[in-house]
Amino acid sequence: MQQRAELEGRLIELWSEKLGVPTVTAEDNFFALGGDSLLAADLLMDIYEEFGLEIDAAVLFLRPTIADLLQEVSAV
Amino acid sequence: MNLVPSTDVAAIDLARIDLSDPALFADGDPHAVWQAMRQRDPVRWQAVDSTGFWAVSTFDGAERVLTDHATFSSTGGVVLNMLGRPEPAQGQQFSATDPPELARIRGPLQRELAMRAVQQHAAVVREHVRGLLGSLSGSFDFATAVSPLPMAFLGPLMGIPAQDWPLIARLVAMSVAEHDPDTAVEEGPQATLDRGHRELFAYLLNLSLEHRKRPRGDLVNALLALPISAGGVVANCYSLILGAAAAIAHVPTGTLAELLRTGQYPTWAARRAHIPGAVEEAIRWTSPAGHFLRTATRDTFIDGTAIAAGDAVVLWIGSSNRDERYFPDPHRLNPFRRGQRHLAFGAGAHYCIGAALARLALRIVFEEMFQRFSSFELAGDIVHVRSTWLAGIKSLPVVGRPR
Ligand code: HEM
Question: CA-CA to B102 of 20 to 30 Å: which in A75, B171, B223, B368?
Answer without folding.
Answer: B171
